[in-house]
Structure to design on (373 residues):
C-alpha cells in the first residue's frame, strides 16, 4: 500500500495500524482480521509513504513501514524492492512526477536504507500510461514493468559488504556468509541443515526444528554484524529473535538446471513464496564474492575482473527464476559493487479512501484539519 501520512510519528503509526488491521498495542497471535488491508505473512503487510524529494538529489522519497499481522510494532529499518516497482506508477498517477516521452527515469531515495534507486518505466506517449507487457515469475499475467537499479547498494545497514569482515563465519555450528547489499543477509548451505533448497514454502513453514536452527543462526549473525535499530541502538539477541525484517536468511544449493544457484529465502520469521528482490540482489553479489557459501555453490559464473562489468545471476526459487544484473569488479581480492539491477511488474488495485473507526482524538483532529486544507 502507498500512503500519504501525518507528520507526527505516533499518529502516523496509529493510522497505519488501523488501515492494515493489526493490533494497536501488543500482540494478537493468530490474527486473521478482516478489518484492514493487511493479511497473513510479512510480504502482505507493507506500507510505503511517498513524497516529492526536498532536494535535487532525487525525484521522490519513499519510506517503508513493515508490519506483521499479529503485532503492533512497526519496523522502519528496511526497504522493499518488489513494492519499489509500484512507486513510479503512484508518482505518475498522482502527478507528483511527470512522464517523459519514450521512457521515464525516476530517482527514488529510500529513507530507511539511505539508498537511491533509478527506476525506469516505458511511457511511449509521455503520459502516465505504462504498457502492461511484463511478465515475472510467480505473478499470473502481464503488467506494467519497471527496471530498478540500486546505486551503491553496499552496506545498507552495516556500511560494509562483508559486515563481519569474513567471507565465512560459523554460527550455531553452521557455516554462513554475511553479506550486506540492499539488505543484510545470512547465507547458509541447505545441505548442512538437512535440506535441498527445493522444498516448498509450506514444507519449510511446517518444519519447526528448522525454524529454531535458522533463528539461532540469524541471532548470532546479527550480533556479530552489529545490526542496529532505526534510532542507532544495537539490537539485542531478543530484538533479533523477534525481528520481522533483519537480518534476512537464505539456504542455497547447487543448480539443477540452467540457473546459477538454488535458493530458499526467509524474511526471516517465515519462508518467502519466492525471493525478495533486495535479498536476490544480495545473494547475487554473494555468488560473486570468492570464498562465500553462495560462491561455493554457484555454477556458470565468471569471477569479476579488474574493471567493472555486468554479470547476470539467475537464482531459482519457489516461484521461478529471479535474475539480477550486478555491476562489479575484483581488485586485490576485494569485490567492489557499482550497482544491482532487476525487473519487476506492478499494478494499481484501486484508488480511494479508507474509513477509520474509533480513531484517537489526535488522529481525528489531523484528518479534520487535512480535509479543510
Amino acid at each position: 500500500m502507498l500512503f500519504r501520512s501525518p507528520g507526527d510519528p505516533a499518529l502516523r503509526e496509529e493510522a497505519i495500524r488501523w488501515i492494515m488491521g493489526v493490533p494497536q498495542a501488543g500482540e494478537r497471535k493468530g490474527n486473521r482480521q478482516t478489518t484492514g488491508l493487511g493479511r497473513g505473512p510479512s510480504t502482505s503487510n507493507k506500507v510505503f509513504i511517498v513524497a516529492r524529494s526536498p532536494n535535487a538529489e532525487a525525484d521522490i522519497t519513499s519510506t517503508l513501514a513493515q508490519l506483521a499481522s499479529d503485532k503492533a510494532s512497526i519496523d522502519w529499518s528496511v526497504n522493499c524492492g518488489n513494492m519499489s516497482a509500484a512507486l513510479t506508477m503512484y508518482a505518475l498517477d498522482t502527478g507528483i512526477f511527470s512522464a517523459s516521452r519514450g521512457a521515464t527515469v525516476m530517482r527514488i531515495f529510500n529513507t530507511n536504507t539511505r539508498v537511491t534507486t533509478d527506476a525506469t518505466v516505458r511511457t511511449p506517449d509521455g503520459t502516465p500510461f505504462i504498457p502492461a507487457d511484463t511478465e515475472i515469475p510467480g505473478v499470473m499475467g502481464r503488467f506494467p514493468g519497471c527496471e530498478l537499479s540500486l546505486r551503491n547498494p553496499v552496506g545498507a545497514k552495516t556500511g560494509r559488504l562483508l559486515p563481519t569482515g569474513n567471507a565465512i563465519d560459523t554460527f550455531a555450528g553452521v557455516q554462513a556468509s554475511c553479506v550486506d547489499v540492499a539488505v543484510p543477509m545470512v547465507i547458509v548451505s541447505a545441505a548442512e541443515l538437512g535440506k535441498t533448497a527445493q522444498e516448498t514454502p509450506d514444507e519449510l513453514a511446517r518444519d519447526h526444528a528448522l525454524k529454531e536452527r535458522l533463528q539461532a543462526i540469524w541471532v548470532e549473525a546479527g550480533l556479530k554484524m552489529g545490526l542496529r535499530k532505526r534510532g542507532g541502538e544495537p539490537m539485542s539477541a531478543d530484538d533479533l529473535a523477534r525481528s520481522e525484517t533483519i537480518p534476512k536468511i537464505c539456504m542455497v544449493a547447487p543448480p539443477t538446471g540452467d540457473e546459477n544457484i538454488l535458493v530458499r529465502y526467509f524474511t526471516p520469521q517465515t519462508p518467502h513464496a519466492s525471493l525478495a528482490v533486495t535479498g536476490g540482489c544480495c545473494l547475487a553479489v554473494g555468488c560473486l564474492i570468492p570464498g562465500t557459501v553462495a560462491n561455493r555453490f554457484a555454477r556458470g559464473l565468471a569471477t569479476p575482473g579488474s574493471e567493472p562489468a555486468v554479470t547476470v545471476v539467475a537464482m531459482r526459487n519457489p516461484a521461478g527464476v529471479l535474475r539480477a544484473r550486478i555491476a562489479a569488479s575484483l581488485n586485490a581480492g576485494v569485490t567492489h559493487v557499482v550497482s544491482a539491477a532487476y525487473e519487476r511488474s506492478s499494478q494499481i488495485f484501486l484508488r480511494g479512501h479508507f474509513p477509520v473507526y474509533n480513531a484517537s482524538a489526535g488522529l481525528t483532529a489531523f484528518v479534520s484539519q487535512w480535509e479543510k486544507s
Residues 8 and 361 are 13 Å apart (CA to CA). Residues 208-225 form the longest helix (18 residues). The mean pLDDT is 93. The first strand starts at residue 2 and ends at 3.
